[in-house]
Specification:
alpha/beta; five-stranded mixed beta sheet; two-stranded antiparallel ribbon; 9 strands; 24% helix; 22% strand
């Protein structure tokens, strides 16, 4: 009798978008009738947080943590977008249950298309890797990180990456094209 591992080995983590790569354009629904387009965030940093599934314990903890530190991300004028292969209705229920203040986006149809484009799709189980991409205001991937699937990568690396982005100028910067009317004092 042969035995096989429950989970095949993780695909090559170097397949994920490398720093310095232009982030691929995508359009994903945040609700059945609202579409989020990555290029509409140009001018501000974006955090793409890919995660395998809404209701898994690690994913729920990760997204809840990001929700708690969202004010810190916003100090850098950064938008946070969560992406998994779950459907829009599942995301809406998850966001309501976890009281999320950022959109979890469904990479559902065609399933995993955005994850494939970003090099973080897991074809053996149909999910996406637990991956983080910090995209600068010009649409270029700066740090990228693929975490082991069962490990919450936390938020410290994201905050460090945001601090290092020259276009944000840090939390005391006046620069913000996403928030017209904001002023420096």
């Amino acid at each position: 009798m042969s035995t096989y591992p429950i989970r095949p080995s993780i695909p090559n983590p170097t397949a994920a978008l490398a720093p310095g790569t232009a982030a691929p354009e995508f359009r994903l629904p945040s609700t059945p009738d609202l579409i989020v387009i990555l290029s509409e965030f140009r001018g501000s940093p974006v955090i793409l947080a890919f995660y395998p599934a809404d209701w898994s314990p690690v994913c729920g903890d990760q997204m809840t943590l990001y929700n708690e530190v969202l004010p810190e991300f916003r100090r850098f004028h950064a938008a946070l977008l969560g992406i998994s292969v779950d459907g829009v209705w599942c995301h809406l229920a998850f966001a309501k249950d976890r009281k999320l203040h950022f959109p979890p986006l469904p990479d559902f149809e065609p399933k995993g298309a955005v994850a494939r484009t970003c090099g973080v799709h897991r074809p053996h189980d149909g999910n996406c890797e637990r991956a983080l991409f910090v995209i600068d205001s010009e649409g270029i991937v700066r740090p990228s990180y693929v975490s082991p699937i069962g490990v919450n990568p936390g938020a410290d690396g994201i905050l460090t990456a945001l601090e290092a982005l020259p276009t944000t100028g840090g939390p005391n910067s006046c620069q913000s094209t996403r928030h017209p009317g904001s002023s420096c004092r």
